[in-house]
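Sequence and structure are kept together here, with a separate record for every protein. An example record follows, reproduced without changes.
>
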Amino acid sequence: MTGNTWVVLPLACLAAGAFAVYLVARFVTRHNGLLAAFTALAFAAALTALAVLSPMVTPSNLPTWGLSAPGSAFLRADPGALILAGAALGLGLLVAVYSGRYLALDQRYETFYPLLLLLVTGLVGMLLAADLFNLYMFCELMSATAYVLVAFRRHTGTAIEAGFKYLVMGGVGAVIILMGISLVYRETGSIVLPQTISAPGLWARAGVACLLVGLGLKSAIVPLHTWLPDAHGRAPSSISAMLSGVVVQSTFYTLLRVCLGLGFPARSLGRLLIVLSLFNMVLGNALALVQTHTKRLLAYSTIAQMGTIMLSIGIGLHYGVLSAIQAGFFMILTQAAMKGLAFLCKGVCHFYRNATRIEELHGTATQMPLIAVAFSVALAGLAGVPPLAGFASKWFVLQGALRSSGALGYVGLIVFLLSSLLALGYWLPLIGTLFARQVSEADHQNETTAVSPWMALPIIVLGALVLAIGLYPGPWLDWTAKAGAYLLDAVP
């Protein structure tokens, strides 16, 4: 089987899995455990295909699949896309297993699992798309399923409100993206990525600006971020893990790929990202400090951490620092593991204790010690406590920023350091709450709750991954180095 065929196989596995799981749920069985297992099997098949494809992809060799005409490939695998797709498939597999028990709160099994598979199908297709039209179609497949999954708990008004707000803002972003594609096509007569535009005219510039705004909205770049706290805070925790762990980051990578592919100068794009990252870091951390609901706190921290990723990649593009881009991709991987772990632990607390507010997490260590420890690992990693993955990612971002040679890079570095200190103001108290004694005597403090193996296994895997990446970052850094070289158009 050729490398070109392997490019499309992850998508084929996911799409076929969604169709098959829906048919099984409708006509064979609605047993939650079986449907979760079938869904996990589809993710595992797609992940296997991606693992076979990965060694074939280098910055100078990008396998394609699609039309045979010159420059008209439908899909193209690049190193950055493989990183995001691998994180999405791995987290999707763990979320599917986790939902084998967690979804008992909702019981709409025949809807949830196909939507989860279609969400990741759209995400992976968006990352691999080699032309603007198919990129748009896959992006909207991902977005449409995300809107429904955010409002999945339709019996609660807050979920419907969050889903509707996400739909309205996402729809506006989709219209702006479509307008940008039409403007680019009007001037160049092509929608293939990348394009060589020697002297972009007014229409091409306007098109790139529209694409930047539309994809920036879906990436929660301040001031286009207002949908994120409600959507991530009101969705089921398993879906919040996907949204905060991989969806926002994948759209951001798509933004990079589209802008650079349409001729946006790397230095100018890097400078813009550095400036915007300052607002993300300051606003995200400041608003996270005043939250009383756990998931909204985690959602605002996602905005801040997107700022750190933007800063690192922006410095790399603006100053030509490969290690800074490498650190940004490394942080994307660590955020997927840590944010996924944090939201899944929060879901367990809600499932067994109906805990939604921070103050309701008191006594978690007594009643569910495994969850308290795993949740603390995630939060400590997000805070940058050594030797966890979050510390390693922030250390590499710091090293990359120090290699910048201009005032803008040093301003970003100062804001990054201050924001990291500010973040300790909400991460450390939250960890303390998990191990604090329960104030209410109505809750039996000495009773230990047995957590379902369906929910415990993904949490243990992610917790071990957070620790392993922090202790042994080398293999992960080697993987992300290819993505950095691809963006800089140079082989390391």
About this structure: The first helix runs from residue 3 to 27.
